[in-house]
## 1
Amino acid sequence: MFRTRASSFFTGFALASAIAMYQLQRDVMGSHRILADEVEGYYNQLEKRIKQLELLTGLSSTNHAHQVARRNEST
C-alpha cells in the first residue's frame, strides 16, 4: 500500500514539475523575445540618429576615417 501511494506521489510530482518547467521555459523565452525586440528598436533608433548626425555634419563613417588618416599622415 505504501509503495502505491509513494509511486503515485512521485509520479504526480514529476508530472507537475515537468509542466512547471515547460511553463517557465515559455515565460523565459517570451521575455527574451520581448527584450530582443526592444534592443533592436533602440539599435535602429541609434542608427537613424547616427545617419542624421552624419548628414548634418557632412561626414560619413568612411569619409571620416579617410579624413582622420589624411590628418595623421600630414603630421
## 2
Amino acid sequence: MSEKFLIDALAGGAGALAYKEYEKRRERDGLPPAHHQGAKEVLAGIVSFEVAKHLQEYEAKHGKQQVEHIEKLKEQVMARIHGMSQGN
C-alpha cells in the first residue's frame, strides 16, 4: 500500500470523525441536528486537508522508515470508523 493512499485514507477518516463528532456535540448540547450539509462537508474537508498536510510533513521530516507509525495510526482510525458504522 502506498504512503499516498495511507495519508489519503487517514485524512478521510479524520474528516469523517470530525463530521460525526460535530453531530454528537450538537445532540449532547440539546441542539437540533444540523441541516447545513455543505457546512458539515466543509468541516470534514478542512480536517482532512490538515491531517494530510501534517502527515506529509511528518513523512518528509522522518523519512520512509516511519511508515510503520503511519500504518498503526491508519489501523486505529479505521477501527474507529468501523466502530462508528456499527453505531458506537
## 3
Amino acid sequence: MFVTDSEFFLTLHRTHATDLRAEAARERLARTLPRRSARGWLTRRRVRG
C-alpha cells in the first residue's frame, strides 16, 4: 500500500489536517447560528380559554 514510511506519515498528516479543517468549519458554523433558547417568543404556550 505505502512504499515508504514517509508516504505513510504524509498521508496520515494530510488526513489529520483535513479532519482539523472540517472540525474548525463546523465550529465556525455553530458560532454563526443563533442559539436556541428554551422558550422563545415562538415557543410560548398560547392560553386558549
## 4
Amino acid sequence: MSVVCGVECVLCLGCSRWAWKRCTHVGSDDSETWPSATPDEFEPVPRLCRLILAVYESDLRNPQSPPDGGYRVNPDWVLKHADYEQTQGRSPPYLIFADHERKEIVMAIRGLNLVKDSDYKVLLDNRLGMQMFDGGYVHHGLLKSAVWLLNEESETLKSVWEETGREYELIIGGHSLGSGVAALMAVVLVNHRDKLGGIPRNKIRCYALAPARCMSLNLAVKYADVIHSIVLQDDFLPRTATPLEDIFKSIFCLPCLIFLVCLRDTFIPEGRKLKDPRRLYAPGRMYHIVKRKFCRCGRFPPEVRTAIPVDGRFEHIVLSCNATSDHGIIWIERESEKALGIMRENKSETITVPPKIQKLERLQTIEKEQKDALQKAVSLNIPHAVPADGEPIEIEETETVAAGTDNGGAKRTNWDDLVEKLFKRSDSGKLLLNKESHTP
C-alpha cells in the first residue's frame, strides 16, 4: 500500500511540475538572454509589413483598408501586382515594387487565405522528409511554389536590377504561408546568383514575418545572413514542429491541437529533436518582438531581441490567448513600428560615437554570431551541419542549363532544372545530394 501511495505522490509531483512549467512559460522566455536589435537592422520590417498588406488591396490608388499612416507606397513604382487569377493557385498573390528612394527591389508575398483551396494545396503537398535540398530538408509544397515564382519573375527581377545600375538590393518578404515561399526562394537565388545577373549575396535579403517552419536546422543557420525571421511575442506558427498540413487540416479546432502538440513536445528530449534531420524550423536569424511580461496586466512598450539560436529555437508552444492573434500581419506592423520608434529614440539619447563606426561594429558582430552558430550546430552533431569555414555545395550545370544565359539570355532559365541539379537519384530512385552520391 505504501509503495502505491509513493508512486502516486511521485506521479502527482511530476504532473504538477510539468503543469507549472508549461503554464508559466511565456513568449518572452524564448529570447530572455538575447541582445537587443539595432534600429538600422530592424528598419525594413515595418515597411515590409505595409508592402505585404498592400498585396491585399486591389487598387493602391484607392485603398480600402490602409494601416495607420497609409501604405506609404508610390503606386507608380509598382512593377507588378499579381492576384490569384494570375498565379493560378501555384503561389500566394504577390507584388513587385521598385523603391527608387531606398534603392531596393522588393517582392512581397501575402499570407494564407482561409477560403482559397489553392493555398491549402500548397500546404498539403508535403510529408515529413519528403523533400531534401541543399544538405537538408525543406517543405516540398513551399519549395515548388518558390520555384514557380522564380520561373515567372526571375527575368523581371534580373532586368530591373540591371537597368538600375546593379546597385539596388533585392528584398523578398512574406507573411505566414508567404514567409515559407519567400525563404525558400531566397535560398534558391543565393545558390544561383549568376542567373540573376551575378547579384552579390550581400544584396539579397529575405524577411519572413510570422515564419512557417520550412527548413532543417542546419539550413536555418546556414542562411542566417540572408533570411531574417520576425516573431511577435506568442505566435504559435514558428513554435510548432507539427507539419503545416496537420495544423490547417485542424484549423477549426486549433486551440485543441496546439494544446495536444504542446503536451507531446514537452516529453520529447531536446537531443532527439536536434538529431532528427527531417524536423523543420523557422529560418534564419530571429527577431523577437516582446510586448507582454509574465504576471503583468496590459501591454508594455515593445522591444526587439535578436539572435541566431541553435538549440531552444522556439521549441515550446505558449499556452496563451494571444497565440493566434500575434500571428496577424496587422499586429506585427503596428508593434514593429512602435518598437522601431522606441529604438530610434533610445539611440539618439545614448549615441556617443559616429554612426558609421557603430554600423561597422554591428556588421562584424553579426558575422561572428553566425560563425558561432555554425560551430555550435557542428558541436551538437546536427545532421548535415557544416563549420563556418566549410565549403558550400557546388551545383553542377549541364550545357543545356548554362545555355539559358548565353547569347544575351536568348533562352529563359528553367529554375526547376537548376534545383534538380542539386540532386542525383540512386538506383532505388531516392534523391541524394551530388556530394553524397559519390560516397561509396
